[in-house]
Amino acid sequence: MHRRNVLKMAAMAGGPGLFTERAARVEAQVARATRGMPSPKIKDIQVIATAPDGMRLTVVKIFTDQDGLYGYGCGTFTQRAELVNAAVEKYLKPFLLGKPADRIDDIWQACYNSSYWRNGPVLNNAISGVDEALWDIKGRQCGVPVYQLLGGKCREAATCLATTGGRTNGEIIDSIRKLQSEGYRHFRFVGPDPAFFDPFREPAWEQLPVNPAAKLRAIYVLFEEIRKQLGDEPELMTDIHEGITPQQAVQFAKDCEHFRLFFIEDILSPEDLAYFRLIRQQCTTPMAMGELFNSPHEWTPLISERLIDYIRLHVSQAGGITPCRKVAILGEFFGVKTAWHGPPDVSPVGQTAHLHLDLASYSFGIQEYTGFSDRVKEVFSGCPRMDGCYMYANEAPGYGMEVDEKAAAKYPYGTSEPPARRRLNGGWGAARSPDGSVIKM
Predict the structure, then answer these.
(1) Helix/strand/coil (H, E, C) string of 109-126?
(2) Is the Cα dihedral 208, 210, 211, 216 positive or negative?
(3) Four-point Cα dihedral 51, 57, 58, 61, nearest 10
(4) Distance from the Cα of residue 258 to its chain's centroid
(5) Global pTM?
């Protein structure tokens, strides 16, 4: 306190003893108001491995030295789950113990660079689990939802797309009608080729040849039929999931222009990104890309050159909230919107992290959403609420989620997996063309 104020208080106090007491109280009050919150330190890190619906989910839980202050993050890489878990427990945990939990960006950079070789899916998923947990901790410590830490809401809820499918065009159209009655407006499908992209069926993929040209013809006919029966109102998307040649991709994008699609997803593999320039030069069909990306060196040129319209990053592959909020901001400058990848092999913690990014990002476009079964809700409480096609946050501090570890233990890895996938330890097989060669996916 300034000397003038001290003397003034002394004069008013009527005596040195009373002055000393009052001054001490004032000093303490000022100190409390200006010191901020104490910085929590990372005390322990554990992995919660569970598979309530058959997908191998990795949840990272970080404890701090402040009683009751902890957070959850999603590091799920279901096809290589045990490698991610080991990366967290054997490498990131000893590296991070004792570090301040509130230095989120600094910790992200330290984890990213400490391995020397970087931008691999195993490490990036491990970092994501840590990163998302630190954002949860900061939200809990501040008593606000994570979206408040990201700048506050740009919208009240996130519009979600509905993924549908079927073995025939009729089944898919009936499914779209049903989803429309539930309030959905955006519809994404893979197929209708029954042999395409079904890693759970028996026998394994190697015995289910994929004909890329036939797949494209089938999708084109399906678009025609949907527009004929349902008109222009449904917003339509299809996931090619790579598996075709770049020349086929350019031609298909041109052929589909008159359907006025919401987007075509993953029409090219990450190895063929240069062909997006040809697609952009020849048609206006919107493009979405990114769920396989690990490295900023892959997505930055696509955004800065405006070669895609939606970034489909799998947030845990990209490293969590910290890098993805930067991607969303980058996209805002170039007119590229977010459409985070939200399949079943993302835990509810990861889905909630998507939602908080969606709410706080001006560049939000659409959110892929996968519903939560009763078994999933048994393990994860506080899941986001759906109302029609809109997903709402629960407004609790952090993500507002809790994980019941006893319930999680009831569903170890391998639960509900078909034998072929269990044999591959959660991995997938390979898609092949009719001549037996492996197809990119």
Answers:
(1) HHHHHHCCCCCCHHHHHH
(2) positive
(3) -70
(4) 31
(5) 0.89
Q: Can you tell me the distance from the alpha carbon of 253 to that of 282, in angstroms, rounded to the nearest whole number?
A: 9
What is the rounded distance in angstroms from the CA atom of residue 338 to the CA atom of residue 160? Answer: 12
Domain 42-145 architecture: 2-Layer Sandwich (3.30)
The CATH superfamily holding the domain 148-395 is Enolase-like C-terminal domain (3.20.20.120)
- Residue whose token pair is 């006025």: 260
Could you read off the pLDDT of 166-221 as tens digits, one per residue?
888 999 999 999 999 999 999 998 866 544 445 445 444 454 567 888 889 999 99
Q: In what order do the strands lie in the sheet with 57-64?
A: 42-50, 57-64, 70-74
Q: What is the DSSP string of 43-74?
A: EEEEEEEE-TTSS-EEEEEEEESSTT-EEEEE
**What secondary structure does DSSP assign to 154-182, as a single string?**
SSSSEEEEEEE--SSHHHHHHHHHHHHHT
Where are the chain's structural domains? 3-28, 42-145, 148-395
Rounded to the nearest 10 degrees, how much is the dihedral formed by the CA atoms of 92, 93, 95, 101? 100
CA distance linking residue 275 with residue 255, whole number of Å:
16
